[in-house]
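Lab channel / #folding
Pinned by the channel admin:
"Please post every new chain as: sequence first, then the structure tokens as a reply. Keep commentary short and put observations after the output so the thread stays searchable."

First post following the new format, from NK:
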Amino acid sequence: MDTQLLDLMKHRRTIYNLGRNVQIPEPELTEYIKAVIRHTPSAFNSQPVRAVILFNEHHEKLWDIVETALEEKVAPDAFLRTKAKISSFRNAFGSILFFTDMKVVQSYADNEKLATYQYQEYNWSEEAQGNAQFAVWTGLEENGLGVNIQHYDPLINSAVAAEFKLPASWQLRAEMNFGSVEKPAADKDFMDDDQRFKVFQ
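Reply from TO:
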């Protein structure tokens, strides 16, 4: 069997130590990310995934928003560690905000032709999110970049929507950082197959 995709999947890891030593031009990265998301599958081809791609001061502003939100929630004696973590995300080359357009999800849930499945539409939109995030992550890794994904929603939702003037129907699902790999990931452990798989032949 061909294993090119599997090899890429094995290489995909969470990289926390990211930098800005990226040789790919921003417009080229932008078009690549858009194309990957465009070709990601979704139930009924509903295409509920939205993305905001941030570079330079816009990327830094995102992490300023996160830092401000967490400063109000984290105890002062623990905030120094939190601030250092946020700074490491700010040091990345760029970030991608992944959203689900709830207007799309609701339109499919309200579709009489799909009445049998109406309660599954949100779950299926989450599948589309996972597909898109995994595809972009793996694609960026293939091009020599490191990636990590964070989840600071809903703490930052209103501030992010206001800062980047986003539609009210866009629900934030994840924040993806990318940049040069300054330190590789550690080894990864896997659970036993007999706890995870069942095969009937």
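NK: The mean pLDDT is 94.
TO: also worth noting, The first helix runs from residue 4 to 11.
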